[in-house]
Specification:
Layout (H helix, E strand, L loop, with lengths): L16 H25 L4 H18 L12 H15 L11 H15 L14 H8 L7 E3 L2 E4 L2 E4 L4 H13 L1 H27 L2 H12 L2 H6 L6 H20 L7 H17 L7 H14 L3 H28 L1 H16 L3 H22 L5 H36 L7 H6 L7 H4 L3 H9 L1 H10 L7 H20 L17 H15 L4 H22 L10 H10 L6 E5 L7 H10 L4 E5 L6 H8 L5 E5 L8 E14 L9 E14 L5 E5 L21 E3 L3 E6 L14 E8 L6 E8 L2 E9 L4
Parallel strand pairs: 4-5, 4-6
Antiparallel strand pairs: 1-2, 2-3, 6-8, 7-8, 9-10, 9-14, 11-12, 12-13, 13-14
Helix pairs in contact: 1-2, 1-6, 1-7, 1-11, 2-6, 3-7, 3-8, 4-6, 4-25, 5-26, 6-7, 7-8, 7-10, 7-22, 8-22, 10-11, 11-13, 12-13, 12-21, 13-14, 14-15, 16-21, 19-20, 20-22, 20-23, 21-22, 22-23
Length: 764
């Protein structure tokens, strides 16, 4: 097998492709750090973040010397081809604004950041409503601890569900181009992932053509293409991991003057950004520790060995900080994820078991560091590592067999019939081929192609001539274990197939391509080449079927139409009985993307009790419903057809769209009875008696738009001196006739008359 070695060419005076990628990485990481810090401080502004990041990149280019290029520098046209093919399958991105699942939450987090400059949501309605209206509003919560799906309600206020870096990226363009432009941030990160995936393959192999093949295979991959348009965190995660590993390998493979420590710094920062993108950064820690162990045992140069140890410790420390960040600013979500991840493994005492495991791992790593230069222990540890390396292919096969066996049991037996999710919720038990295709490992054969997946199991048994490829194989096998044993079934695609795109699918492709590039000419190399070609054609065919299809196309136009009718001083009531779109799917963007006052309510609750309270607070009140019949005192202002195209959910890749929602939405505005003007009689008790439902006092008196308004009656007020309840909220109904200027308000408490107050209004 061809040795992975690199010679050092002399530095050139012009900007080469490697230097361009280095500056691109600095720009991406600078934007990430500046955007996240400013969002956390509540001072986020996208133009300023871009300018600051560009300035940081310029300073880096001025003071950081150029590194020596690889012996086979990547031609510019390689980058252009990969970017062009990538954009062909990735434009335009899908514009998401509706609430509900993860993609809608991320999009609304981004627009909340654009509107407010921070990511600390607040419920303005709680500070505006009182009395029965407030009680009804509290009942509109989706769950007792959830304000809306993806937004938790805690004792301290509201908290978004997820980590914050990806919404920051959406806001970096959303602040400049609006919600329709926010998705292009995802496009940018997807191109970054393609370029650094190509770079990583190039660095590992020392061959530019290997990098080109890897970049093109990922560019045509249907899973990567879909989630480059669908706003979730898997593709951004891949962008940061490829940056980190590309610069780590660049440092590892360099020698002499070409060994740049700043590459390690870039790698560390990129890994930190990965940890701030997804909470599942703990899945990367085994590979981080493995890199540290391999460095201590097999790197002979003391300086390089020390640098790699520092890299391992720095990445571990930053991961620990990301955990602290999550427990501080996304506490409910963090606790839920850690419990879901570790409780099945360690039981009810998972916290203690996890803490003990972390301590043992730390002690073990320190022991390896201490003993790594003490023979014969050093030789014994090396033999253990090499033995483990030889067992990796066998482990991969065992995991695959286990996954296929699970697929058989799921599809053709009742083994999972009583499982609350698999059997009862999603109905996957004993459904034949439908169940089999719902197994993650079987689905990965679709997105990799059967040719590349089979080529992997052949390639992993070939002798590996470089420790970096051994580490890469370990990385792939670890995520194969995740796919085969942990996240082993997909309730439906394409949504849940996203778990395959951040690590397993791309890095398996990378391994196969690198083994192909390292193999000598012969039958084996030709076999791998054939598998890669067939796999590329398979994936390009699936990706081509996504072209021209759009998820949620036109939904933002419908929401814009609603928001155009409403001012920020108005109240929007969304019918709780909405079905596709669901109530919270409309409520979330109206609150966070458009910044409106919104509550969900049952149509039957739109009575005088509620309207009295709300009309005294908001300028206008609107009601959104699918029902043709409108509540009393509501007049229709608009009616339009709401359609929501989505990719068909099932066991197949995303190739066909259907209409999830196809319904008429009616918007009506509350129009109370004719305005009546009143002046207090009975000695003019004073404006201090007025409660909700009245306008600001004028020189002649006050007026109300309804037939009910509140009086605040105290025990010492002359009109109700006999009452002992201070400052009660009482309801006053004004009984008037068009001809009578002097009328009487009957003040009721719990339906019983407690006082009568004479009032007058001008006869105009």
């Amino acid at each position: 097998m061809r040795d992975f070695v690199t010679s050092n060419d002399s530095m050139t005076g012009k900007l080469d492709a490697s230097r361009l990628l280095e500056l691109l990485a600095v720009l991406v990481l600078s934007l990430s750090a500046i955007g996240l810090v400013s969002a956390r401080l509540g001072i986020f502004h996208a133009p300023q973040a871009w300018l600051a990041a560009l300035a940081a990149t310029w300073l880096y280019s001025r003071f950081a010397p150029r590194g020596r290029p690889l012996s086979h520098p990547v031609p510019w046209w390689h980058l252009v081809v990969v970017v062009a093919v990538g954009l062909f399958f990735r434009l335009p991105p899908y514009t998401y604004v509706m609430g509900g699942q993860d993609q809608g939450v991320y999009a609304n987090m981004a627009m909340e950041l654009v509107r407010t400059g921070g990511l600390q949501p607040a419920d303005a309605m709680l500070h505006q409503l009182t009395g029965p209206a407030l009680d009804l509003y509290r009942q509109s919560y989706y769950l007792p601890t959830v304000y809306l799906p993806g937004v938790y309600s805690t004792g301290d206020g509201l908290s978004f569900q997820f980590y914050h870096l990806f919404p920051v990226w959406l806001a970096l363009l959303g602040d400049i181009f609006g919600p329709r432009g926010a998705g292009y941030s995802l496009t940018l990160l997807s191109i970054v992932s393609l370029l650094f995936f190509q770079r990583l393959a190039h660095v590992l192999s020392g061959q530019a053509r290997v990098g080109l093949v890897a970049g093109l295979l990922l560019a045509v991959n249907p899973l990567h293409a879909f989630f480059s348009k669908f706003p979730v965190t898997e593709v951004p995660t891949l962008a940061f991991s490829t940056i980190s590993f590309a610069f780590l390998c660049s440092y590892w493979r360099a020698s002499g003057e070409a060994m740049q420590r700043r590459y390690l710094a870039i790698s560390v920062v990129a890994m930190a950004m990965l940890f701030m993108t997804r909470i599942t950064g703990f899945m990367y820690m085994p590979i981080v520790l493995a890199i540290g162990v391999v460095s201590l045992l097999f790197v002979q140069d003391a300086t390089r060995r020390r640098d790699m140890a520092v890299w391992t410790l720095a990445v571990s420390a930053l991961y620990a900080l990301s955990v602290v960040y999550g427990l501080k600013w996304s506490a409910v979500y963090s606790r839920d994820i850690y419990q879901l991840a570790f409780a099945p493994l360690f039981g009810v005492r998972w916290r203690a078991a996890l803490g003990l495991m972390v301590c043992l791992i730390a002690l073990g790593w320190l022991a390896v560091w201490y003993l790594s230069r003490r023979s014969p222990i050093d030789g014994y540890m090396k033999r253990c590592v090499l033995t483990g390396e030889k067992l990796l292919p066998l482990l991969a096969v065992i995991l695959a067999i286990g996954a296929v066996y699970k697929a058989y049991r799921l599809g053709y037996t009742d083994a999972y019939a009583l499982d609350p999710n698999i059997g009862k919720r999603f109905g996957l038990s004993h459904q034949g081929i439908r169940s089999v295709l719902s197994v993650s490992f079987m689905a990965s054969a679709t997105y990799l192609s059967p040719f590349i997946l089979l080529a992997f199991f052949v390639a992993c048994f070939r002798a590996v001539a470089h420790p970096l490829l051994s580490v890469l194989l370990l990385f792939v096998v670890c995520f194969l274990a995740h796919v085969a044993a942990m996240q082993w079934y997909l309730p439906y695609q394409p949504y849940y197939a996203r778990y395959l795109v951040s690590e397993f699918v791309p890095y398996l492709i990378l391994f196969v391509v690198c083994i192909w590039g390292a193999s000598p000419h012969g039958a084996f190399r030709k076999t791998l080449a054939g598998a890669l070609v067939l796999g590329g054609l398979w994936c390009a065919w699936l990706s081509a079927q996504q072209v021209g299809k759009h998820e949620h196309d036109g939904v933002i136009d419908s929401l814009d139409r609603i928001a155009a009718q409403v001012d920020h001083g108005d109240l929007v009531l969304v019918d709780k009985q909405l079905r596709l779109p669901l109530t919270h799917e409309l409520q979330t963007p109206l609150v966070f993307t458009y910044g409106l006052n919104v509550a969900s309510i049952d149509k039957n609750d739109l009575d005088e009790r509620f309207m009295d309270e709300a009309a005294g607070v908001f300028d206008d009140i609107y009601f959104i419903t699918q029902s043709a019949g409108l509540p009393d005192h509501f007049v229709k202002t608009d009616s339009f057809h709401f359609t929501e195209p989505v990719f068909e959910q099932g066991t197949a890749p995303p190739t066909h769209t259907i209409l999830r929602s196809d319904t008429a939405l009616n918007i009506s505005r509350y129009v109370p009875g004719p305005a009546r003007r009143y002046k207090f009689g009975a000695g003019d008790a004073g404006y201090e008696l007025l409660g909700a439902g009245w306008n600001a006092p004028e020189s002649w008196g006050v007026w109300t738009q309804g037939d009910r308004a509140q009086l605040r009656i105290g025990k010492d007020e002359p009109v109700l001196s006999g009452l002992q309840q201070p400052m009660l909220n009482l309801r006053g109904r004004a009984y008037t006739t068009p001809k009578a200027p002097l009328q009487r308000i009957r003040v009721e408490l719990n339906g019983n008359e407690v006082a009568a107050v004479d009032v007058s209004y001008p006869d105009e």
